[in-house]
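agent> step 3/5: call structure_predict on target 'G-protein coupled receptors family 1 profile domain-containing protein' (Adineta steineri).
agent> reason: downstream docking stage needs a structural representation; sequence fetched in step 2, passing through unchanged.
tool.input:
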Amino acid sequence: MNNSLAYSHVNLTRWVSSIVSPIILLGCAIGNIVSFFVLIRPRLRKQTTSIYLAVLCVVELGTCYTGLLRQFLIDAFNLDIRLINSFTCRTHIYFTYVFARLAPLLLALVTLQRYLYVSQLALCSLRSTCIQIFCCILFVCLAEFHLFLYYDYTHSDTRPRGQNIPFECTVDKIRHNQYYKFRDEIYPKITLIAYTIIPLTIIILGNALLVRTVRQASKRSQSTTNKKRSVTRMLYAVSILYTVLTSPASIFLAIAPANIQLKSWFRISWTVLRLLFYLCHSVNFILFCASGTFFRQELVAFLNSLYFCRSIYPSETIQYENRFLNNNSVRHRTSSTRSNRKQDQNFHEHKHTENTLIVS
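tool.output (status=ok):
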């Protein structure tokens, strides 16, 4: 009875993963690639938050295509990239965890940076932003390098060793006994604090402070806060969805013991949590379009700049270009009119001064 139940769980999880995973992977690829090119356009990249979000798109693309793609190949074709040889085992698991760890740290960093910028507590230049992103990436790469050193294509750590037991991509608990204890007992608690609790605390508190600061700024000046609101709303949406969808999987990985993988209900529970986790990394494009006014405008400009969009929608492209040129010409005429008025005013004041001197 237990064997048949476990077999049904395996078939169910593979069926669900084989159907849902390609949809998430396709949405992740299209959404994050388009979002990246829109966010680095000249109008948006003036905001340092857009640089963070552009890097986040690359990180989330890497997260899905190192983690979810591997699981899809296992469920659909019974092919595991990590089981090819020791190098693919170490390389794949290393980059999987690097991308997964970078996402919460980048979100926490951009939330903190956005609050300091909006509240005018610090100036955030493009150079300082690039340095912060580089330091964050370097920290995660060095912190997770132990995975590359100790993981190997070796005997299973959860099953008894024998001739009929296949090798796995794991840590050899006989050769590296001390590290195995560290990975099994201490490392999950460190990652829970460093990559889940601390980033989520910064994200939640930072967004709460951002809401208050933006409301106060909007009372003082409506025109200067429109751009701030547009980019900040995109950050709100990404942060809230990330907190809701990724927290269950992160906490489950941190507190679950290694031998829980042998339970019959583990596969279906972990499949649902895993798909929710990767779904969060594939819907940023929808969130940006729904919450960012300037993002939508730049998205239209980006699509209009593509050759195939021009050939499919030539009239819309011409209308957009004419509207853009008309807006620029209106701004130019307005500025020139103001300049002429100022020159006329200065001329009349000068003539009045000369007449006064002559009379006196």
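agent> step 4/5: record observation. The first strand starts at residue 151 and ends at 154.
agent> proceeding.
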